[in-house]
Amino acid sequence: MQWPENRLKVASLILLLTLSACDPFPGSKQQATSTTTEKTRISFWNGFTGPDGQTMWEIVRQFEADYPQYEVEMEIIPWSTYFDKLMVSLGSGKPPDVFILHENELVNYVLQDAIRPLDDLVNGPQGVPVSDCLSSIWERVRIKVPGQSEANIYGIPLDCHDEAVYYNKDCFRQLGVPLPEQLDRDNFFHLARQLTIDQDKDGRPDQWGFVFGGSVRRHLYTLTAQFGGQFLDRENGICLIDQPASQKALQILYDAINKDGYMPNPIHDGSNLWQGFLQGRIAMYTDGIWMMNGMKKLADFDWGVLPYPQLGDQKAVWASSHVLCLPRFSDTIDGEAAWIFLTYLSNHGVDWSDGGQLPARYSQLASPDFTQKEHYPVFAAQIPDIIFGPNDPNIIEIETRMEPCLLSAMSGQQPMLKMVQEIKGSVESILRRGVD
Amino acid sequence: MTTEYKRSKNLQSLIHFSYTVPYLLLFLCWLVIPIIAGFLVSLTKWTFISGKYQLVGLKNYVDAFADELFLKGIQNTIYYTVMTVIGGNLFSFFLAYGLTRVQRFRNLFRKVFFIPLLLSVGITGIMWRWLYNTDFGLLNYYLGFFGLKNTNWLGDARISMPAVALMAIWGSCGFNMLIYYAGIREIPTELKEAATIDGAGGFYQLWSIILPLIRPKILFCLVMSTIGSIQVFDRAYMLTGVGPYFANYTAIFHIYYQAFRYFRMGYASACAFVLALLILAFTSLLFRFLGKHEEYY
Fold first, then answer.
1. Beta strands in A349-389 (DSSP E)
2. Contact A407 B49 (CB under 8 A)
3. Of A111, A329, B17, B189, which has the maximum CB count within 10 A?
4. Which DSSP state fits B50?
């Protein structure tokens, strides 16, 4: 009596499995393949989620017009999740054909064997004029891997981004303070205090004189270099944050909030500081050239740009660069197409500068199309003085570890000495561990 | 006859078992194999991209227990878990209890309390960031009516984690509330009526009848909240990142950064297993104290 029912069950199971194994859309894959054969696709990943993404889209569209045989699939991924996706794609053998890294991230990826050396392409018939590239950035993309006799080129610099001081001209005019041509230790502190106003005398200024904007570590690198020091001694595995140059830098950052009082506490106001500048509550604000993109659209805001203040014995300003890379291993990459696209981007540095960047080539920096741009030359004039963050494979971990400590010390939430010791201890422990 | 019956029975069992095969395959592929693979990875030094690995034994586990930041992450996770599990369940229970006591707008209240659960953490994170804003936030605005000075909710290391916990309690109370509400509604009315006749007041009924009878629901909610809270990442990430001086740096932050930012897959896997053991310890404790099964009716 059981058999007919069981047979029915077996039959239904077989039918179910057979149906599930069937492709409901036969030929769909074939169709998809046939459409892709017309143009060579180049996948390009970056993190340009701001208005710079729009600028990049325009360059990509121009590339597709100039090279109709290619089609670029550009994927803009927020930097916060960009590296997660990039890492998985590189590990799984399905990376993008071209992708962006910051110069300080490059060395880690190179040591993971994830990036293709570009020496043959750079020196090939469709190469890149090495002598035209900014030498300081070029040094960052030439990396010597342990076990190899010479350094190789692992990326082509797309741009350079340094920092300067954005200032609100109205804040100066209202107080009758003449606009300075540059900021140094003779006029900076006086000016910053002069522009800090507490009209209602409630102990909280209504207008602040100056803000060291963005990440604290960038200002630490800059000011430490201005005092003739450096943050890391990589060869000996020592963090130099407790040395006089870094101590002087930290003191300036601490005093800005807690002694001189010309800067609002970032712990209190957080991300509102840039908004505060745009609202006219902050007279001078230090940040990167990438802010230019937003500033250009502010019609009723009378602003200007000054070089980064020289508060130490020598000039220095932190900078970084977006670097174009090709993956080392890929199942799908069309190397020739990727290289043509990469060099096209590199050759269009002036167009890319509209996105709030400096070109990474001397010829582009000197071209009239660039030099006639308003405010950009201030950033460009600092190029001889630019310094980069430490070039360590574990730099992302080091910076993630130290930034909250720096912010707590600068804002006065934690004792400076304790934070300095903590940063030194943790950074040296990371350096000792090396690369896993 | 007996042999044929046995054969038929066996075939029937086989067919019934075959119905579970799709689930078992998924269970195997997505849970059992990854757990085993994860454990094996935790015994290696492996960076994923290069594919090169090196067996290091239990070194990653030793490193995890010596890593101050990981221990701080565990400490913060426990702090957050205690706040959200106790606070969240108390809040959910009293919402549910209150709902059973009101007659008008009950459905409306139930929906309103459940809505936060349907919103994405990304949206609620931005919303709460504005609520907590020191200068312009609604929270400080209303507290100002009571003469309180502006509080730096997210920038002060002492209160930023409770601020994240408050957002989490608000965001997840709807789920537990429904469980408690269903549990309270399941209790036979005769029991409450008998207690009322015996002179038991509201508090006595709550303590001696309602709470014991919904104990399985309490256990379920506590276990689920504990597991969810120990794995906290998204809410803290959206609201403050690691927070002021790592105040909101939880164990999952550590695992995420180690794996996806620093490429230390082996070490991150070891940290994940330590966290799994923590979840196991917490849930075992809950089962130990609340897991006794007793039928009252």
1. 358-359, 386-387
2. no
3. A111
4. S
Best probe of the A interface among B49, B54, B255, by most A CBs < 10 A, is B49
Q: What is the rounded distance in angstroms from the CA atom of residue B72 to the CA atom of residue A430?
A: 17
In 3D space, the residue among A398, A272, A206, A224 whose CA is nearest the CA of residue B129 turns out to be: A272
Query: What does the pLDDT read at residue A286?
Result: 96
The closest CB to that of A6, out of B11, B69, B242, belongs to B11
B109 touches chain A (CB under 8 A): no
Domains and CATH numbers, chain B: 68-119+160-290 (1.10.3720.10)
Closest chain B C-alpha to A352 CA, distance in angstroms:
28
Determine the distance in angstroms separating the CA of B7 from the nearest CA of chain A, rounded to an integer.
10
Q: How far is B135 from chain A (nearest CA, A)?
A: 8
Full set of structural domains in chain A with CATH: 39-158+321-360 (3.40.190.10), 163-318+389-433 (3.40.190.10)
Residue B69 contacts A, CB cutoff 8 Å: yes
B149: pLDDT confidence band, cut at 50, 70 and 90? confident
pLDDT in tens, B237-280: 988 889 899 999 999 999 999 998 898 999 999 999 999 999 99
Q: Do A404 and B242 touch (CB under 8 A)?
A: yes
Q: B15-70: per-residue pLDDT in tens?
A: 999 999 999 999 999 999 999 999 999 999 987 887 788 999 999 999 999 999 99
B84 vs chain A: nearest CA distance in angstroms? Answer: 25
Report chain A residues whose CB lies below 8 A from the CB of B245. 404-405, 407-408, 413-414
Cβ atoms of A318 and A389 closer than 8 Å: yes
Tell me how far CA of residue B258 lies from CA of A435, B241, B265, in angstroms. Answer: 12, 15, 7
What is the SS3 assignment for A361? Answer: strand
Q: Tell me the pTM.
A: 0.86
Q: Which of A104, A158, A164 is nearest to A357 (CA)?
A: A158
Tell me the two tokens of residue A409.
């010390």
Alpha helices in chain B (DSSP H): 2-27, 33-42, 59-66, 68-82, 88-101, 106-118, 121-131, 138-144, 160-186, 189-197, 202-205, 211-213, 215-230, 234-239, 251-256, 265-290
Subunit contact B261:A83, Cβ cutoff 8 A? yes
Q: Could you give the CA distance from residue B75 to residue B254 in angstroms, rounded to a whole number?
A: 12
